[in-house]
Design brief:
It is a single chain. The protein is mainly α. The chain contains 6 helices and no strands. 74% of the residues lie in helices and 0% in strands. The longest helix has 28 residues. Helix 3 runs antiparallel to helix 4. The chain has a single domain, classed as Up-down Bundle (Four Helix Bundle (Hemerythrin (Met), subunit A)), CATH 1.20.120.340.
Length: 155
């Protein structure tokens, strides 16, 4: 198991180990899971009228989307990376609207989009690991390695 990283935003040592040993495809899945968890929690806080906690979880989900945007490699990802950047930006906008309007509709939409993306990435990972191309470097998201230490989601 990986040693505890001082001042790590990942308080769970098992999650810390998973992040530190993950390949780029797995890191994207971890980011999606973190964003989904924060949106689901924000929806729960919204229903309970817990404004501060709702805002905190929406902000975490927004920041995870920012990390996903930063991890895109437009030189290798082509239209896919451009489309993902637009989708991530759209979801950030919907999160801010949900926060300011105290509306569940936008949160639900973002949750559905993130879940669909996670399902897609899980399929890509399964195909990638079972193909002979498993030894080649994936075109997306190569720069995610740069952001590994800045992951700030919690479970």
């Amino acid at each position: 198991m990986a040693a505890n990283i001082p001042n790590s935003p990942l308080p769970n040592p098992y999650l810390q180990a998973e992040v530190l040993s993950a390949d780029p495809l797995k890191l994207v899945q971890l980011l999606y899971r973190g964003a989904i968890d924060n949106v689901v929690t924000a929806r729960r806080h919204l229903a309970a009228g817990e404004i501060r906690q709702r805002s905190k979880n929406i902000t975490k989900a927004w920041e995870i989307l920012l990390e996903l945007i930063r991890s895109l490699d437009h030189s290798q990802g082509g239209d896919l990376s451009k489309n993902l950047a637009s989708l991530y930006t759209y979801m950030q906008k919907r999160l801010m609207e949900a926060n300011s309007q105290q509306s569940d509709r936008q949160l639900q939409e973002v949750e559905i989009l993130l879940t669909t993306l996670l399902d897609g990435w899980q399929q890509v990972t399964a195909q990638h690991s079972s193909s002979s191309a498993a030894h080649s470097k994936p075109a997306y998201p190569a720069p995610v390695e740069e952001h590994r230490e800045r992951l700030s989601f919690t479970y």
